[in-house]
Structure prediction request, 240 residues.
Amino acid sequence: MVNATTPLRIGYVLFPALTALDLFGPLQALNFLSIKQNITLSLISTDLEPVSIDRTILDGVSQGMLGSSASPYFSQFVLPTHTFTDAALNDLDVILVPGGPGTRNLNATQPAVDWLRARMDSNSSSPSGGPDYMLTVCTGASLLARTGYLEGRNATTNKAAFDWVRSVEHADKVNWVPKARWVVDGNVWTSSGVSAGTDMMLSWTEHVYGRNASETARITMEWNALNQTDDPFAGLYGLA
Prediction:
């Protein structure tokens, strides 16, 4: 799949109140990877308006579960590059889905779920019929579960939100692994909470580009990576 003359096309799904490190941790590893590897990046949302980080912000005011926080005006945003209606995204090789409090807003994330389901059905670049790789971070696994694509597969997610993720549509047909930093099942990679996404991304980098590429990114980031089975948080939340 990796070809020096053909870019690897990566798409990252955005939605309001996604968690910062779910997005920027893996992106940091990809930024270093892009120095020597030919890859492209699309940040995808319902429209091209700025997307809020860790809380939903409307007209400068935080909404929902974080609306009553001590710092309602502490805000961050990320700018999408493409929308879900952009036909140029039909042939993405890799799709990443972050988590965050916004995943609990089922209505707001339905466009992302619908788009993910369509990508599973329409992209024929891999034997499974979807993108070559699908990666989720934290509760981003709930969006992929809602498409039905995880049915019969092994997966993991944020341990603090483990029970909630297992409650979404189609999630009862997923084999949720309680103790794992990340889980690989075929072309689907799912990570535990927040920082685990960066460990998963570094492992994916090694899988696709080799250990030298992964270690170069890790050392440059000064990142102390955990192994796939390193998951102290499963016990903390009574899952192991």
